[in-house]
Specification:
The protein is an alpha/beta fold. 57% of the residues lie in helices and 10% in strands. The chain has 14 helices and five strands. Strands 1-3-2-4-5 form a five-stranded mixed beta sheet, sandwiched between helices. Helix 6 runs antiparallel to helix 7.
Length: 290
């Protein structure tokens, strides 16, 4: 009976000493005594396989066909099936007879088997989390390490460009974005490009205090209102910017050839469809349109 994993194997009279007893000095070995005619054995076997695989090599599973391997069965006095015995350091240390639920088997194993090492965090997911927390330099360093081994990861390239943009390396960010190919990350790419646009535009605009002063004197100064929104976008004040853009759209949707509407859509791309602000302001924009 062949197995898909090196941690699970058939044990026989001939190899029991080596595969079970000698192996058990290095890793605990669970021995499943079974027979083809035994229905509970067949129900238990996939549970034992699942548990063994979950330990990622910290536990081995040896399967003994009791109809064939008579010497081993006699050696351990197996009288009922299924019988499961755990071996450590060449000795049986625990076990059970009859089918058992997974939870009970894991509880039996817990004192004897080391927990598998936790899977290493995915560096791209790690960088995404750092970026969301505003830890841009740490996110950038994580992405640099990832891209040094795989520079074809489009999602990582886009996020790396956004990190560069956060420290105003706009030309470098643009070069990275231009290297992204394929449509898989189309919205994220559009969002990153929008971020570059806002940062570039903001660099040529009056400062926020001056724009707010102009609006205090004339609340209908559409240019000042739009430029303040761009300033806010460059500083990631997304809610204030979306609110200002929506009000400008409601007041003068034709301003600068429909620029408030276009910019709202760019911000939606920048934040992504799952962002709560996007959900809220898409609904408000829809209401304003219709």
């Amino acid at each position: 009976m062949s197995q898909d994993t090196p941690y699970i194997f058939d044990a026989t009279d001939a190899n029991f000493q080596q595969l079970v007893l000698e192996n058990s000095f290095h890793k605990p070995v669970l021995v499943d005594f079974w027979a083809d005619w035994c229905a509970p054995c067949k129900a238990l076997m996939p549970i034992l396989q699942k548990i063994t695989e979950s330990y990622q090599g910290e536990l081995l599973l040896a399967k003994v066909n009791c109809d064939v391997e008579q010497q081993v069965v006699a050696m351990f006095g197996v009288r009922s099936l299924p019988t499961v015995v755990l071996f450590k350091d060449g000795q049986p240390v625990d076990g059970f007879a009859g089918a058992q639920p997974e939870s009970a088997i894991r509880a039996m194993l817990e004192p004897h088997v080391a927990e598998p090492a936790p899977a290493a965090a995915d560096p791209y997911e790690q960088a995404q989390a750092l970026f969301v927390e505003g830890r841009y330099s740490e996110a950038e360093a994580t992405l640099q390490a990832l891209l040094s081994t795989d520079n074809s990861n489009a999602g990582a390239l886009i996020l790396y460009a956004r990190c560069l943009a956060e420290r105003n390396a706009l030309s470098e960010a643009e070069t990275v974005l231009n290297a992204v190919t394929g449509d898989e990350h189309k919205a994220a790419l559009a969002g990153a490009k929008a971020q570059l646009t806002f940062l570039r535009q903001a660099g040529d605009l009056p400062d926020a205090a001056e724009l707010k002063s102009r609006l205090a004197q004339n609340p209908n100064d559409d240019e000042a209102a739009y430029q303040l929104c761009v300033r806010q976008l460059a500083r990631q004040q997304y809610e204030a910017a979306l609110d200002g853009l929506l009000k400008l759209f409601q007041r003068n949707r034709a301003y600068n050839e429909g620029l408030p509407h276009k910019t709202l859509l760019q911000v939606f791309d920048l934040l992504g469809n799952d962002h709560p602000l996007v959900t809220t302001y898409r609904r408000k924009l829809f209401a304003a349109l219709y």
